TrEMBL record, chain B:
Protein known as: Sulfite reductase subunit C
Segments traversing the membrane: none
Organism from which the protein derives: Acetobacterium fimetarium
InterPro entries: 4Fe4S_Fe-S-bd, 4Fe4S_Fe_S_CS, NiRdtase/SiRdtase_haem-b_fer, Nit/Sulf_reduc_fer-like_dom_sf, NO2/SO3_Rdtase_4Fe4S_dom, NO2/SO3_Rdtase_4Fe4S_prot, NO2/SO3_Rdtase_4Fe4S_sf, NO2/SO3_Rdtase_FeS/sirohaem_BS
UniProt keyword Oxidoreductase present: yes
Keywords noted in UniProt: 4Fe-4S, Heme, Iron, Iron-sulfur, Metal-binding, Oxidoreductase
TrEMBL record, chain C:
Domain 4Fe-4S ferredoxin-type: 210-242, 293-321
SUPFAM superfamilies reported for this sequence: alpha-helical ferredoxin
Keywords, alphabetical: Iron, Iron-sulfur, Metal-binding
InterPro entries: 4Fe4S_Fe-S-bd, 4Fe4S_Fe_S_CS, Helical_ferredxn, Sulphite_reductase_A
PROSITE patterns tied to this protein: 4FE4S_FER_1, 4FE4S_FER_2
Record protein name field: Anaerobic sulfite reductase subunit A
Length: 265, 322, 333
């Protein structure tokens, strides 16, 4: 019996590169197979090694991988361009199940690159607005220069209630300012006890946002989060992403808050 | 009415003290290690013939003060079991120590106890003592287990500093970098990481073994051979106190023993017999003859390990008051 | 089937087996210890029973036979991947009862938790396990508390008794080789008590994660990872990509052992780390060994070999920590 080697990556072609900021790019990669928002691939980056990257968009036979040039690990990919190849493994993790949110009133709160793993959800409801009983996207970035998916925002604004804010900006900036948490109390929610909240972002942003949502009357079982950790093998072996008896790479990274709130590193 | 030959008294390891009529006996403890059963014997001498006090010498011996010159024979008799037990070479049994010029060979606590030590300093000190004592020539030799040099070998004519050549098994290395951090913070920063593996700068490495001590997986281990850094001609004193300088690096034990014994021949040949008391420190003799002449004598017939680096010429600094 | 056989004959059988199997056993590596003139007992290849260190506990466990400290997974070029070859021979591993229990923990992680690890499996499937008895408990052992002092799960049991070897075989190839030996009932030596007794905590409430209890360890632990590396049940690893060319497109990927105590374990790209405090790292490890693993897989992970206590340079006792934790949990209830 041949054992499948789960560590061997496959070759994927870069079909498009979308530059968002000086340090953030989306790579559209060929991939055939089922994939959900919130799942991730282990991407082999020449000169640096593997890094877990969330799926930020799902097309026919392609997946989008948005990579931030942080640390030395993810620098090198930016030398690649269309037609070149990268080695991938995955998709790994459970991902978001959009069926859980259909027919519901949805508030999606994302911070910075935290928008990547949930972008597929936004795309879906932007294309199928009737599937939600109202959809608000609340996104915070550090500054106007850090805004991701600018073109997508134009599309989303047509069908969804979109609030984009930046922590700080120069004087001439016309958009909204301040933390996402400041906007939560003023978002009109029709039936908060049944509304779905989805929160993804840096650890501190998630903590504060969830506190604000609970204060606003959201129920714990209606809140969903995605936990970013050091997922090194993606298949429950290497141990780096383990929190208590949970392997984020296998059981997550998406958790209902009733489970997620007990995850203590 | 005392009628004494002070030269003989001094050579018998007694001191001519400032107190008229009283001497002090010096007990050698090569390597600074003795069994506790000798302490009551020393206590007995101090309480019977001395003033009940003991001084711990800087060279790791005992000095028993307050002994009457006329009691020296009796004290020598009581010293015999101590001399026997510590296996001190002796020309005439029962007559105490038969020389004092070559001082007690001292050593740090070494690998019997200390985690940093690369070798058994006591054992090597005893071996050296056996080779060079008794001798009236003024030689100070000290052994220290690692480059920390706790015994301060660099203030000796001969200082022997232990070294290990770290052995690296890359297949046991997990790149935790404990060795790199230890080497940087506690030693000479001789380690770096290339492609997740450790690279040792062999020029820089002092063989302290910090990498071995800090390695959690036994990727770093010690070389089967112990190596030594031989530092020479350090001294205190009035004219030109100075630290010993490196002569050999990565040397083997036999070579060191032979260099020290060769140096006795060199001193015999070049010592200034007209110096006060016929005493002249080796360092000053070398200052006179030049290092090259000394080196010729010191390395005569010495078989050096192929790894050994010979520093030549050697220059000393220190403070000049003359 | 039990046997008695002359030592020389048994060594001849091993020599014969070594044509097909590499034989690994705890072995004394003279002078290879942390300090001068201190030996290390760890696993290495043997060809004669005399090379096996039966009298002492090994400092490192057998796990490096199945999970090499550094293992190349594959080689890559711009467009291709080539899996690293497996060892040509199978393996025979001599180990004690506790370590045989540890083997099950490794199996659980590497064969059951998520995808099957093909590298582990290909070694595991070609390995035979020979039990070494324990006539006495060693310092810091608490196998009895962990229920790992006895086992039935071996391919053979072997005991050297002077010039005679006693065996119990459940392995056909060995039975065949022993055909000429005297039949004899052989019962493995197992210890039934240890000086160290550990009381395991009932489910540890999360409220205790921030108990001041852990701060003490935060002040003492130096994050060297020795406890993890000697542990037969620690399974974590980190990937390393080694590049042969400047463009980074040809090279090899390997995995090396990782430690949850060592800096960098939870670091993500961008630098955020989730457990900077060493006390919390201790909490994480202890909880994994005697709480979390059991919640997920049904048995405790720790098998009570006490190697972590043997090796800790700061004299942190894992077994004592469990006992203190149990007392805290009781108090908390």
């Amino acid at each position: 019996m041949t054992i499948i080697n789960p560590y061997l990556p496959f070759l994927s072609e870069i079909t498009a590169v979308i530059k968002h900021t000086d340090i953030e790019y989306t790579f559209r990669m060929t991939y055939q197979g089922d994939v959900k928002p919130g799942q991730f691939f282990e991407v082999s980056l020449p000169k640096f090694g593997e890094a877990p990257i969330s799926v930020s968009g799902i097309g026919d036979d392609t997946v989008d991988l948005t990579i931030r040039k942080v640390g030395k690990v993810t620098d090198e990919i930016f030398e690649n361009y269309v037609g070149d190849h990268l080695f991938l493994r995955g998709p790994y993790g459970n991902g978001f199940d959009i069926d859980n949110y259909k027919g519901r009133e949805i508030l999606l709160v994302a911070g910075g690159t935290g928008l990547s793993p949930v972008k597929g959800i936004v795309d879906y409801f932007s294309q199928n607005p009737a599937d939600a009983n109202g959809f608000t996207l609340l996104v915070g970035f550090k500054s106007p220069a850090d805004v991701l998916f600018k073109d997508d925002f134009t599309t989303w604004q047509k069908n969804l209630n979109v609030i984009m804010t930046v922590d700080t900006a120069d004087d001439g900036y016309c958009g909204k300012r301040g933390m996402v948490t400041e906007y939560i109390p003023n978002i009109p929610i029709k039936n908060v006890s049944d509304a779905v909240g989805i929160v993804v972002g840096p650890p501190m942003m998630m903590k504060c946002t969830i506190a604000e949502l609970l204060k606003a009357g959201f129920r714990e079982e209606n809140l969903w989060i995605s936990q970013e950790r050091k997922m090194c093998c993606g298949i429950g072996k290497c141990g780096h992403c383990k929190i208590d008896d949970t392997y984020i790479c296998l059981d997550g990274p998406v958790f209902n808050y009733t489970k997620g709130k007990f995850l203590k590193d | 009415m005392l009628d004494l030959n002070t030269k003989k008294i001094k050579k018998n390891a007694y001191r001519v003290t400032k107190v008229r009529g009283e001497t002090a006996s010096r007990i050698r403890v090569p390597g600074g290690l003795l069994t506790a059963d000798l302490l009551p014997l020393i206590q007995h001498i101090a309480e019977t013939y001395g003033n009940g006090k003991l001084h711990l010498t800087t060279r790791q011996g005992f000095e028993i003060p307050g002994i009457k010159y006329e009691d020296m024979d009796a004290v020598n008799t009581l010293l015999q079991p101590i001399i026997d037990k510590l296996e001190i070479n002796q020309e005439i049994p029962g007559k105490g120590y038969t020389a004092a010029g070559t001082r007690n060979v001292s050593a740090c606590i070494g690998s019997n106890v200390c985690p940093f030590a690369t070798y058994n300093t006591t054992a090597f000190a005893k071996r050296m003592e056996k080779e060079i004592f008794p001798n009236d020539l003024h030689f100070k030799v000290a052994f220290t287990g690692c480059a920390n040099d706790c015994i301060k070998t660099r203030m000796h004519d001969f200082g022997i500093i232990g070294m290990t050549e770290p052995q690296y098994d890359k297949d046991r290395c997990v790149n935790c970098q404990a060795c790199v951090k230890a080497c940087k913070k506690k030693s000479v920063d001789a380690l770096s990481v290339e492609n997740f593996r450790i690279v040792r700068n062999t020029e820089k490495c002092v063989g302290c073994g910090e990498c071995v001590i800090n390695c959690p997986t036994r990727a770093w281990t010690r070389s089967p051979e112990t190596y030594y850094r031989l530092v020479i001609m350090g001294r205190t004193g009035k004219r030109n106190p100075r630290l010993a300088e490196d002569f050999l690096v990565w040397a083997n034990a036999d070579a060191i023993v032979q260099i020290v014994t060769n140096t006795y021949k060199f001193v015999e040949n070049y010592i200034d017999r007209t110096a006060p008391g016929g005493k002249e420190h080796i360092g000053y003799i070398i200052d006179r003859t030049g290092f090259e002449e000394y080196k010729k004598w010191a390395l005569e017939g010495v078989k050096l390990d192929q790894r050994t680096i010979v520093k030549s010429p050697v220059y000393w600094g220190g403070i000049h008051y003359d | 089937m039990g046997y008695q056989i002359d030592l020389k004959k048994m060594n001849a059988i091993l020599a014969d087996l070594s044509k097909t199997y590499t034989i690994y056993a705890p072995k004394r590596f003279v002078g290879d210890g942390t300090f001068a003139h201190i030996d290390t007992i760890r696993y290495g290849e043997i060809s004669d029973l005399a090379e096996i260190e039966f009298a002492e506990k090994s400092n490192y466990s057998f796990k490096e036979v199945l999970l090499p400290i550094s293992e190349t997974l594959f080689y890559f070029t711009e467009n291709e991947m080539k899996e690293a070859d497996a060892r040509a021979k199978g393996a025979i591993v001599f180990l004690r009862s506790c370590d045989l229990h540890a083997l099950k923990r490794l199996d659980t992680i590497y064969l059951e938790n998520g995808a099957v690890d093909s590298y582990y499996k290909r070694l595991r499937d070609n390995t035979k396990f020979i039990l070494m008895g324990c006539t006495q408990s060693f310092e810091n052992c608490f196998c009895v508390s962990m229920g790992s002092n006895q086992t039935d799960d071996y391919d053979a049991y072997l005991k050297v008794d002077g010039e005679t070897v006693l065996l119990n075989s459940r392995w056909e190839a060995l039975d065949d080789a022993l055909a000429g030996a005297t039949a004899k009932d052989v019962v493995p030596d197992f210890v039934t008590e240890n000086d160290t007794v550990v009381e395991l905590p009932e489910a540890v409430p999360q409220a205790l994660f921030d108990a001041p209890f852990w701060e003490d360890y935060g002040n003492r632990c130096i994050a060297c990872g020795r406890c993890n590396f000697v542990c037969p049940t620690c399974t974590c690893f980190t990937m390393q990509d080694l590049f042969y060319t400047d463009n980074g497109k040809a090279g090899e990927r390997r995995r090396v052992w990782a430690s949850c105590h060592v800096d960098g374990y939870t670091d993500m790209a961008g630098g955020h780390a989730f457990r900077n405090d060493k006390g919390q790292r201790m909490r994480f490890k202890v909880m994994h060994k005697v709480n979390d693993y059991k919640r997920r897989f049904g048995t405790h992970m720790c098998i009570g070999c006490g190697r972590c206590d043997d090796v800790c340079p700061e004299y942190i006792s894992f077994s004592n920590c469990i006992n203190k934790l149990s007392a805290l949990v009781k108090e908390d209830n």
